[in-house]
């Protein structure tokens, strides 16, 4: 096996692992609901998401962590408030990679 092929294999494996992490994060109904809320709103605060998803703030934090680790959302803090938004570029890339 040439070094170039080995590099390509590693890159393909990393891509596959990233896709698996993303789809695992999206497999939970509550996380999917959070993604749907963010898809229709550019950015939302944690309180807004928790209220609209009818979940506690602590449960939101748990789901946020999983979504952020998968790269599906980005978070920013402004004072005491944390806002999140979809990483649309990443989602588009990996969803399209399954179709083409």
Short descriptors:
single chain, 100 residues, alpha+beta, Arc Repressor Mutant, subunit A, 3-stranded antiparallel β-sheet, 5 helices, elongated
Structural overview:
- By secondary structure, the chain is an alpha+beta fold.
- The chain has a single domain (3-99), classed as Arc Repressor Mutant, subunit A (Orthogonal Bundle).
- 69% of the residues lie in helices and 14% in strands.
- It is built from five helices and three strands.
- The protein has helices at residues 3-26, 29-40, 46-53, 57-69, 88-99, and strands at 44-45, 73-78, 81-86.
- Strands 1-3-2 form a three-stranded antiparallel β-sheet.
- A hairpin with a 2-residue loop joins strand 2 (73-78) and strand 3 (81-86).
- The longest helix has 24 residues, at 3-26.
- It starts with a helix and ends with a helix.
- The model has no long low-confidence stretch (mean pLDDT 91).
């Amino acid at each position: 096996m040439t070094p170039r092929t080995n590099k390509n294999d590693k890159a393909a494996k990393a891509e596959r692992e990233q896709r698996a992490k993303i789809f695992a994060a999206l497999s939970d109904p509550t996380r999917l609901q959070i993604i749907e809320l963010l898809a229709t709103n550019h950015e939302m605060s944690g309180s807004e998401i928790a209220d609209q998803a009818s979940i506690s703030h602590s449960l939101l934090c748990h789901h946020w962590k999983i979504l952020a680790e998968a790269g599906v959302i980005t978070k920013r803090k402004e004072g005491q408030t944390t806002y999140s938004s979809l990483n649309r570029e990443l989602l588009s890339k990996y969803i399209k990679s399954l179709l083409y």
